[in-house]
Structure formats: C-alpha cells, structure tokens
Amino acid sequence: MTGKVPITTAAPLVLGLLTTAAGSAAGQETTECGERASLHVLVTEESGALVLPGATIVLRWTADEVLRPVREPAGVDGAFSLCVPGDARAATLWAEFGDDSSEEAVVAFEPGMAHEVHLRVLFGDAEPGRIVGRVLDATTDDPVATATVSLTGRPAEVQSDRQGRFALTGVPAGSHLLEVERIGYASLRYEVTVVRGLSTELQVGLVPAPVQMEPLVVTASRPRRLEINGFYDRKYFGELLGGGTYFTLEDIDRRRPVRVSHMLADAPGIRLRCPGSGFRDCWVESSRASGGFTPGGCELSAYLDGSPIPVRELDSLVLPVEVGGIEVYQGPGELPPEFGGYDARCGAVVIWTK
C-alpha cells in the first residue's frame, strides 16, 4: 500500500519520473530534470545479482520546506528514477520487500547532477526477535508479579513486574518452548514462534495450583513498520507511566472510523473541530496546554510516518484503512523527544501507516 503524505502549497513537489526501463537508470541524461538533480535507484537482493521488481522505495527529504515523502514501487527491472525537488538538500532512503528491507542510504544532492543508489535488501534469519507480554491470573485476570519467564535451552530468564509485564530480547527466529513459573501456580510450557526482527506479544494466564483447568495463551505478531519505529516501546512505557493515548491496528479495525480525525477524537482531552457542516474539513485540538478549550482552539502538531504535516490536512493525506497505529500526546509534558519542538505546546498526533 502507498501511504498518502503531505505537500506544501508554497513549494509543491513535482516528481518527474524519468524511466523504469531495464538498465536505463544508469544512462539517463540529467537534462530531463533541467537544473534539478536526478535520482536513480536500483533494488536487488543482498548479493546484487538478482533485481527485485515491485520492491517499495521509501524516501524522506531534508529540505527547507515540508516536502511530501515518497513511497513508490520499483519497476520490473528493480529500478526507480525521479527528478529531485529544487529545495531538497538531501534524502534518506531505503527499500522494502515483503517483511525484509535494505539498510538506509543518505544522499546529498547537487543541482543538475545525477545520483545513483544501489539498495540491497537483506534476507536471512540472523536478526533476532523479542517476546513481550503479560502474566495474569487465569481466574481473576489480575497481574502476576515475580513470575519467572524463560526459554528452554537458553540461560537468560526474566521476572514479570508488578503489572505482570515481561520482555525477552535477542531471541533467535524460530520455534521455542516458553516456560513460566510462579509459586502457587501450575507451571506453563508453551511453544511460541518468533519472527526475525519482530516482537511476538503474549498474554499468559497462569492457573492457581488447586484449580483444574488448562493454561491460556494469546499470541500476536506486531507490524514491522510500527516495531522498527518504536511505536510499541513508547506505548509500553506511556501506558506504564500514564502518558499518551495509543490506538493499535486492532483498535482501528474495531472502531472502523470514516476519517482518521474521528478516531483521534476518541482520545481523552481531544475534541473534533469542524467549522463547516457535517464531518468534512475537520481537525483535532487539545485542551491540556491551555487548561481548557479556548475559542481559537489549541491545534496539535502532526506527524505521518515520522514526517511533520499540517494537522488540518490529516484527513486528506491518509485514510483509516491505511493506518497501522496512532499516538496522541495532549501536551509537551507527554511528548517523546523525537516529536517535541517549539511548536509542540499543544501536544502532537503521530500516525503510522501499515
């Protein structure tokens, strides 16, 4: 899926597609972009011998203006070309192919020059995963603290905290036998599959020893984009410390909002502002920064896949079916450092696409 992303009216981004014909990116004449720089990207697997047609190329610009990030598929030859916006100084880019991706590359642009980038998608099972979750009493749903959690055949073990939470890191991809033990409860043995580079989330229900019933385990794998961008870590600590509101893909699917702003209005301290009739041209405001809703409103800053966007254009830039996770921070005291800044006095909303 190609996520919709913002563009300023002062400096519109014109993507001049040069060519996607096989082998033509390297020989493309820069005159087709005039005085602007051109960018030619080739995506292959790790050895460079096999091109990856249809691989998704993602670019985030460094520019004087807020420019639309790019998320486009490569051609049948694994190539993608475009004319660089005039005010773009540099870009960070990478390629995604299924659940795998390349390393990031950074390119600095010079006017009139052609820039070629070779992105190699890394396959293999070397990247470890994580197992995170909670240990609960299967009869009362109360958290179980100090339960010992480990994997058979591996020396590392952890204990659940007061909320029953635990995390096992650096777990190799594949099947493992999870062991959970706590005095007063029947021991649990459960086979869990870990996907490389992802966190597998568990909810473990321990049964008090005298009670005759089967242990309960609920398993879920997390979306890769949210995992690598720290969404679940911020959600974990935010809910632990009482900062921020978080909507997962399951929350969005259950709510089925018509517009993203409708989902945001479900967060505490946030209201939907629609100057016109109906639910068109709406945006969200926070009350925390000013101690209450003001006549002029207190607009949140907004980010889409890590890039700043105008909050009033959020509904026109992304649809609810494209969203994988949402973070809402009502004021500067809740904001993580990566979403702070001089314009964040009212808080921020952070949208991640699938």
Task: Give a verbal description of the structure.
The chain is mainly β and 354 residues long. The chain has three domains: 30-121, Carboxypeptidase-like, regulatory domain (Immunoglobulin-like, Sandwich); 129-221, Immunoglobulin-like, CATH 2.60.40.1120; 226-353, Beta Complex (Ferric Hydroxamate Uptake Protein, Chain A, domain 1). Helix content is 9%, strand content 37%. Strands 2, 3, 5, 6 and 7 form a five-stranded antiparallel sheet that branches. Strand 20 and strand 21 (307-309) form a beta hairpin.
Question: What features would you highlight for this structure?
Answer:
Ferric Hydroxamate Uptake Protein, Chain A, domain 1; 5-stranded antiparallel β-sheet; about 35% strand; 5-stranded mixed β-sheet; about 10% helix; mainly beta; 5 helices; about 350 residues
Q: Summary?
A:
By secondary structure, this protein is mostly beta strands.
Tell me how many strands there are.
23
Strand content: 35-45%
Structural class: mainly beta
CA-based shape = globular
Taking the alpha carbons of the first and last residues, their distance comes to: 8 Å
At CATH level 3, the topology of the largest domain is Ferric Hydroxamate Uptake Protein, Chain A, domain 1
The total tally of domains equals 3
Give the C-alpha Rg. Answer: 24 Å
Helical segment tally?
Answer: 5
Say what oligomer this is: single chain
Instruction: Write the H/E string, N to C.
Output: EEEEEEEEEEEEEEEEHHEHHEEEEHEE
Helical residues, percent: under 10%
